[in-house]
Amino acid sequence: MRIAIAGIFLLSGVACMAQAPQMQQQHSYAPAQDGGVREVLESIVIPPIPHSPFTATLATEWTRYTPDGASITLVNERRIARDGRGRVYQERWYLVPKDGKVQSTMNWIQIADPKALIRYNCSVEKHRCDLLPYDPGDALAAVSAHRTSGQMPEGRGEIAIEELGERNMAGVDTVGIRETDTINPGVMGNDRPITAVSESWHSKELAINVLSIVTGPTIGKQTFTITELTPSEPDPQLFELPAGYKVNDQRKDPAVSR
Predict the structure, then answer these.
(1) 83 neighbors 237 (Cβ within 8 angstroms)
(2) CA-wise closest residue to 135 among 121, 117, 120
(3) Residue 202's Cα: distance from chain center in Å?
(4) DSSP 8-state symbol, 144
(5) Domains of the chain
(6) Is residue 139 very low, low, confident or very high in pLDDT (cuts 50, 70, 90)?
(7) 200 sits in which H/E element
(8) What whole-number distance in Å separates Cα of residue 201 and Cα of residue 225?
């Protein structure tokens, strides 16, 4: 059976088991005649802030473990960028088996404009761009959020935060944090405590995580690594819609053209 998983913000710990954010969804599917599965894999948050442009490659590696101890690892690489105006460009590529014969291909291009409050989801396969409303608040809030060690609300569990120091990665200075979330029995239908660990190395200069590693019993291990980082203005053509693509305006009340 061919496994093809399309490439997309990192939510720490157990949150990534249950949440699906707006722009950064990474859908996966294993097509079959009957049955099948559909999942969401999170990636890093790219806040649409101005005056901090960059271009980079984001490498994803997702390892899941079977009950008999075997592992399944899927990988991809995709280009991401942000310009001086705060616009965010992201490519989505299919996740494919690591060291396998299947080659990854791009299936989506996404462009978000925080000033115009719009985003385009462009299907490479259909040559169509869906125009959607865009609220940058979620991405901005995720970057500014600072969790601390202590009890979760409503007795759901406990959070432990560990500072890991400083490292230079991909040519930029980063600060490391490890967060361990322990979910109490019964919160998610679990009969015993569940522990998930999130490690991130954050660049204050660019307001992004240069390395993120998330592990948990239901998600396995997810690693997101930024490489080939260029902290300068990206090619402006990245933020132009692909030539020949049809635009489908899906906003409820599209603005009147003048």
Answers:
(1) no
(2) 117
(3) 14
(4) H
(5) 4-236 (2.50.20)
(6) confident
(7) strand 194-203
(8) 10
The whole-number average pLDDT for the span 206-223 is: 94
With contact defined as beta carbons under 8 Å apart, do 183 and 14 qualify? yes
Question: Are 36 and 42 within 8 A, CB to CB?
Answer: no
Q: Which residue has the higher pLDDT, 144 or 33?
A: 144
Above pLDDT 90, what percent of the chain? 71
Contact indicator for 212, 224 with CB cutoff of 8 Å? yes
Tokens in use for 254? 């599209």
Helix (H) or strand (E) holding 201: strand 194-203
Amino acid at the residue 155: G
> What stretches of 24-170 show up as alpha helix (H) in DSSP?
137-144
Closest CA to 179 of 202, 201, 197: 197
Residue whose pair of structure tokens reads 């997810």 in the numeric block: 222
pTM: 0.81
With beta carbons less than 8 A apart as the criterion, state whether 27 and 40 touch.
Answer: yes
